[in-house]
Amino acid sequence: MPAKKKQDITYKSYLGLESLLQSQHPISMTAANAPAHDEMMFIVVHQTYELWFKLVLFEIERVQKILGQKSVKDADMRLVSASLGRSVAIMRLLVGQLDIMETMTPLDFLDFRHVFRSASGFQSLQFRELEMRLGLKKETRACYSGKSYDDFLPAEDRGHLQKLQKKPSLLEQLDSWLSRTPFVEMTGFSFWQAYRKAVGDMIAGDRKTIHADKRMNANARDAEINKLKGMEEQFDLLFDAGKAGEMPWRFSQKALQAALFINLYRDQPALQIPFRILNDLMDLDELLALWRYRHALMAQRMLGMKMGSGGSSGHDYLMQTIGKHRIFSDLFALSTFFIPRSKLPQLPPHVESRMGFKYWDDTGVKKPK
Amino acid sequence: MPAKKKQDITYKSYLGLESLLQSQHPISMTAANAPAHDEMMFIVVHQTYELWFKLVLFEIERVQKILGQKSVKDADMRLVSASLGRSVAIMRLLVGQLDIMETMTPLDFLDFRHVFRSASGFQSLQFRELEMRLGLKKETRACYSGKSYDDFLPAEDRGHLQKLQKKPSLLEQLDSWLSRTPFVEMTGFSFWQAYRKAVGDMIAGDRKTIHADKRMNANARDAEINKLKGMEEQFDLLFDAGKAGEMPWRFSQKALQAALFINLYRDQPALQIPFRILNDLMDLDELLALWRYRHALMAQRMLGMKMGSGGSSGHDYLMQTIGKHRIFSDLFALSTFFIPRSKLPQLPPHVESRMGFKYWDDTGVKKPK
Amino acid sequence: MPAKKKQDITYKSYLGLESLLQSQHPISMTAANAPAHDEMMFIVVHQTYELWFKLVLFEIERVQKILGQKSVKDADMRLVSASLGRSVAIMRLLVGQLDIMETMTPLDFLDFRHVFRSASGFQSLQFRELEMRLGLKKETRACYSGKSYDDFLPAEDRGHLQKLQKKPSLLEQLDSWLSRTPFVEMTGFSFWQAYRKAVGDMIAGDRKTIHADKRMNANARDAEINKLKGMEEQFDLLFDAGKAGEMPWRFSQKALQAALFINLYRDQPALQIPFRILNDLMDLDELLALWRYRHALMAQRMLGMKMGSGGSSGHDYLMQTIGKHRIFSDLFALSTFFIPRSKLPQLPPHVESRMGFKYWDDTGVKKPK
Amino acid sequence: MPAKKKQDITYKSYLGLESLLQSQHPISMTAANAPAHDEMMFIVVHQTYELWFKLVLFEIERVQKILGQKSVKDADMRLVSASLGRSVAIMRLLVGQLDIMETMTPLDFLDFRHVFRSASGFQSLQFRELEMRLGLKKETRACYSGKSYDDFLPAEDRGHLQKLQKKPSLLEQLDSWLSRTPFVEMTGFSFWQAYRKAVGDMIAGDRKTIHADKRMNANARDAEINKLKGMEEQFDLLFDAGKAGEMPWRFSQKALQAALFINLYRDQPALQIPFRILNDLMDLDELLALWRYRHALMAQRMLGMKMGSGGSSGHDYLMQTIGKHRIFSDLFALSTFFIPRSKLPQLPPHVESRMGFKYWDDTGVKKPK
To answer: The pTM is what?
Structure first.
């Protein structure tokens, strides 16, 4: 870039403020022959939402580019973590941003609500893209007035999403990446086998303790034994390939195993960053859920039970999405199958040592025990 | 208080820190022969919650004391507003405070979760008292494993709540206070009659417009007319004493009318503070709902689908309360029945003038128009 | 607006997303032949700041339009309060928004910092306009590298601000509005005289108590008496027209008196909203200060002591503005002169009654005592 | 613990609520013969602050225990990061918690301010301990009314702090830990030498560019050359042992070098967690500064320029601490000496490889390039 041009850059030109600050066009018209005062706020709030969505998408794209590789460089994992951390920070801001919207009262909203008729936040292409990139499947989406979400989109947007749908989502990329985790299965070590045994031992031990407890009466004992049975059956949802189908697992078995392994042995140097990444994804999922819920509360406050243009209330639709639109729910469900640290299978030394850094080997540095 | 004693007061003695900072007693015991590290955090988080609940109760008690009077001094309304505003600020903090809890991972939680067996946040007497004081009714409460919430409380706490239940709740006190609002019904003016007429006129006008619109085809016209009918039927839930029963209104009809009046004519000097108070109550209700929801998300993250001691998962119970434990839902539902400001009945001058301040009358101050 | 056009409105067209989402133009170029990743974040953060500034300005303009009138309708005061409340909510968001910026590390910033050379946030016209509208005076502004802030602005922006400077600021409008407060001076009542007497009585009483306290030794007594003298001298800064000049008061004496009156008798119906407005202005002032401080911390973190293009560090400049750019500092200073409620002069009944609502007079409603 | 006892545990007993909720003892007495309403809030706010301080101290103690070892296990670094992350989350909450305090108005505060005479938050032992543990030195502390902070503490607290002062602070432990970083100095590689050369090359390159730029006139060229000289002199503060004394560096030179190295090569697997830890410490430092500043603003709002019992205003003291009580300022200052990534010395392969994980070596896993 020639020096001359650089010097011409001003704050205003760099940020494109000339047009940015002229992009608010309230269209309502009150008796006073002016737009309703609160329409400006309404526009600015939505515009900032869209700008932030653009940034979250930009970060998620980087994550996808890295995790989508056949083999991921360890150095790149910090970038994945940084992009997810930033996305989480933005989503936290966006949840809080609803405070601004709620400075508007329902009566103020009525002053201009009619102007956008069927136009609605429902049509945000970027938000749909975000959900899709993360891994929300079309089949699990809530319907709005019996119609699919993309019936409400202009044709070009629908096309854009259809193309995107053919590409692997972050959830799918994460699945492949997890499935490749070494350590879970190494010469002389099968985590899955070891874990299954540890769970079995734990339950057997508990059963023994219950039977040996002389202070318990028969009823109490039966209740405790029943609880134990329930737990056993629950673990079948994980271990028993036949019953796993009863769980709405989205991850492959291999990925599930690796995710469990990472959670349980997270202190191993090679797992610290992967563990953090799984956590960041759960944060992101939670914040999206929280955003939907605050959104639903706001819709209820603004419109009560007023019908949307399609015939069902915005509040009801949003409440549906809260349950259905979770993406990384496998990661949440996994904690069902954690067992206390004291019962965990111990890692064989040759497995554990491979999860460490290389410098202990050959740099005279003394390794602590 | 004698001067000597005053001088003895130190920061430490004033706040009772000696005992406060000795009140954390972790009881877990790990292999390392020490309590699990995260138990301290768990205790401190819950203790601060309880301290804040104490303060919210203290503020709500002041609100109840004032609003429970047969006649409320205008000067006291600022106190009501201040106490509600503070309660809202505290609830906002408490929602955010879950961030601290979420710095604990499920595996850390497992290290000490077993120690409190059936003890659970479910047994927080203060939170039950708060719900009850605000106006949550026993009948509407969600059950936990088929049992009522008070089956889980010690006898003395149950007794405390039973006594409290006989006293009027804030919702009931608000109902009486609203019902006494002058202006809604004054010589020569009935808001209810005027509003009903305005709604009727609005709908009739819309119907006329639809029929006159030559660009619409028959189908479109039928759809629009049907929407209008739907709206008409919805308004019956407000106006038609017979159909009002279909709505789960908790307010009396008189209170509903006044709440609507206050919302619609909120700019009148005498209504500005009442309007703000209704808003504060909605904020409080929303924040309680949000707190429950974040709580449910956290339970899911910590425990997955692990059963609580009673046999159902904490997450499921909490999700139930979100829908059922709303208190001031009438205030949210009311916005269904707002009509645009331009269609509102105009207040007769003799009604409007009484909502103003007295000083214009007799202090040479020139009143602006 | 013809019905046809209305139906064409989509979410995308209404918000101008086509151009809004194409307005991010990173100009850095790394070795990888692509812009530095974090430049996108940098642009989006600044663009959202500018959008929010536009909204705050829009709200402050409404406040100025109302408060700038010769006589203000009571009904409009709710609008003033709503606009200030919204501005406060936005500023709170903007303080939090720095969290996003701090997801960037200094090394990431270095990747593209050079591209905007002398362009800087310093050139934000809207922020300058906000400071000016609120009432920041040119003389009190901190200099940056010995130059005035407007030396850094393009000519057209400088012109815009010069025109604005000739119009009354919110601080000046507030001064006029406060100065017109009735009640402070009414037939048979002068607040100023009464307050001065109350302060005098309080100090005299304290002096008497000290002298009468036999348990105090001479040294302690002298110390207490000296403190009392200090307090007396401080009150001269308020009461003594000659010494008031020692305080950097920006309000006229009449406005100061009214602001004090409003603070002390805030429970009177006619003062509840004015009191809230003074509080909102203090919130706004505080949040602006907080924003500057977080900004300074961030600059320090990103650049350490690196020089800005003008030769002094951004951190140092920002730290200067924190002290100098406060606007409603008179409102903060006023609390120096509050005396305990129990020592306040009681309002004569004819003054107090005029601060009440009119409806007690002539509606059968029984006034509470 | 015997099973029987476990079953007795209730929510109430576990949290010690019986005494916790009886520990609020307002001592003011208004004309109405009851404590001032806002005193309860004042007590609860301070009690929750102290509870949180206890938790932060507990976390910092864990960090110190780990980092204070002669050799630190890599697995423990996740614990350090978790404890710092939690401390940061708590401090963020504590900054926000001032919102609750600001629901009190100055006049409300005056109702009970006199009761605690010289007792003040200044006497918080835990906060002093926190500052000391982190590494604030006695000499750098701001004085309050010419007295040292410990003149205000009871003798037993002073003793406690004196003992603590003899133990290494976190800052000192961090210094040792950093100083031991391998990689910075390895056979065939000296980071310090390489970095110094890179800086020299960068400056020489810039100088050449300036002289070669024919479009610049003599004045502009001189200015640019001067800037470059300034930069060179600044780097002497880092490289030149003689001039380093001009900087208030608290870290040893070895620690400084390692901190710089970690910042610049943070993507290397072995540096990702150390980098995050340095960042967490900066977050903590920033939040402590922010808390002090909000505290100062609040003091100003509550008391204006009212004197504290010692003769200087709380606001002035707090503003002093903001500048003086920063602890990890070296980490902030370091960014002054970062150079763009493209100019960084490249790490020799034998150094870089040692920062990787061991598993690439001998597990058939194919290492990505």
So the answer is: 0.95
